[in-house]
Amino acid sequence: MIQAQTEGAPSAIAVAARIQHSLVRPDATRAEVERLLAECVQFGFQGAMVNPVWLPLAVKTLEGASVKVCTSLDFPLGGETTATVVRATAEARQAGADEIDVMTKVGWRKSEMDVDYRQHLAAVVKAAEDLPVKAMLEAALLTAHELALAVELCADAGVAYVKNSSGFDGGKASPKLVSTLVKLAAGRMGVKASGGVRTLGQAQMLLDAGADLLGSSSSVAMVMDAL
């Protein structure tokens, strides 16, 4: 665990405790995943975000640690059927995942297929049982009206967190967007900020804007800059 070595370190430690350290590149190697998991323990990150194929390794490696094992489903395009995503959710839960991030059906929302959008997420939440589900909204692809209704549908489906972006095509996190999501969530769900989170200052601004969690693949660099 990192220690408070400088005046900036306490802030870095507090921010680290809200970061889900992510490695979801398709070419990520076992050695890289093992390094990510070790960094999560070393720097006190809240969670390790890995692709489902690495869940057994993450669960075994982090056994006994306080780090949450997280995975992303239907990522990054959100093109799988509900039945497929529900099976993947159940499999991830059985494999030992602690939290699940799932892509929303952006095309359904933009097509005003709101019943389908909500039912899909509700089915994932049901399959996850007691695990928190975070819905990746891809806010940059939505109008203000579409985003507001997406958040309502997520709340109605029982989602635990709304997440502005997968980091793939949904834009970058900003304090303004986080504040908007916090307002729309109205205390019913948490907010995870993701996409382009690369500096400690930026991370702190997102937390100050109301984000509960941060997703980043630059977690070590941003924390080390303050130590």
Report mean pLDDT, rounded to a whole number: 94
Question: What is the fold-level CATH name, i.e. the topology?
Answer: TIM Barrel
Order of strands in the sheet with the most strands? 1-2-3-4-5-6-7-8
User: DSSP strand (E) fraction?
Assistant: 15-25%
**Number of H- or I-type helical stretches:** 10
CATH class descriptor: Alpha Beta
Largest sheet, described in full? 8 strands, parallel, barrel
Fraction of residues in H or I helices: 40-55%
Number of domains: 1
Gap between N and C termini, in Å?
Answer: 13 Å
List the helices and strands and how they pair.
Blueprint: H1 9-16, E1 19-23, H2 30-43, E2 47-50, H3 55-61, E3 68-73, H4 82-95, E4 99-103, H5 106-110, H6 114-128, E5 133-136, H7 144-157, E6 161-163, H8 175-185, E7 190-194, H9 200-208, E8 213-216, H10 219-224
Parallel strand pairs: 1-2, 1-8, 2-3, 3-4, 4-5, 5-6, 6-7, 7-8
Write a structural description.
With 227 residues, this protein is α/β, with parallel strands linked by helices. It has a single domain (9-224), classed as TIM Barrel (Alpha-Beta Barrel), CATH 3.20.20.70. The chain is 45% helix and 16% strand. Strand 5 (133-136), helix 7 (144-157) and strand 6 (161-163) form a beta-alpha-beta unit. The chain is globular. The two termini are 13 Å apart. Residues 2-7 have low confidence and may be disordered.
Features of the shown structure:
227 residues, disordered N terminus, globular, eight-stranded parallel barrel, alpha/beta, TIM Barrel
Write a short abstract of this structure:
With 227 residues, the chain is of the alpha/beta class. The chain has helices at 9-16, 30-43, 55-61, 82-95, 106-110, 114-128, 144-157, 175-185, 200-208, 219-224, and strands spanning 19-23, 47-50, 68-73, 99-103, 133-136, 161-163, 190-194, 213-216.
